[in-house]
Amino acid sequence: MIILGLILLIVGYLLSIPLLTTVGIILLVVGAVLALIGSVGRHPVGGRRHYY
User: Fold this and answer.
1) Residue 32 — φ and ψ, nearest 5°?
2) pLDDT at residue 11 above 70?
3) Residue 13: which residues within 8 A CB-CB, separation 6 or more?
4) Which backbone phi and psi does 48 adopt, to 5 degrees?
5) Phi and psi of 17, rounded to 5°?
6) Integer Cα distance of 7 and 39 in angstroms
7) Strand partners, 45
């Protein structure tokens, strides 16, 4: 999810499409939060330890 968000952010910036840039930022933030929560190990989200 982090990689997809980064790709959409770059593509949206290069092609001047604000919707892609916004979606890229949202996916990047959500992916980072899920990775952080999953790496803690004490509280798995949705039964998964890691999100890829």
Assistant:
1) -65, -40
2) yes
3) 21
4) -110, 140
5) -115, 105
6) 23
7) 48
Q: What are the C-alpha distances in Å from 52 to residues 14, 18, 34, 36?
A: 25, 26, 9, 12
Number of H helices, E strands in the chain: 2, 0
Query: Which of 43, 41, 6, 3 minimizes the C-alpha distance to 21?
Result: 6
Query: pTM, whole model, 2 decimals?
Result: 0.71
Angular region, 27: left φ>0, alpha ψ -120 to 50, beta rest = alpha
- Nearest-angstrom CA–CA distance, 11 and 51: 23
Q: What is the pLDDT of residue 19?
A: 93
The answer to whether 24 touches 6, Cβ cutoff 8 Å, is yes
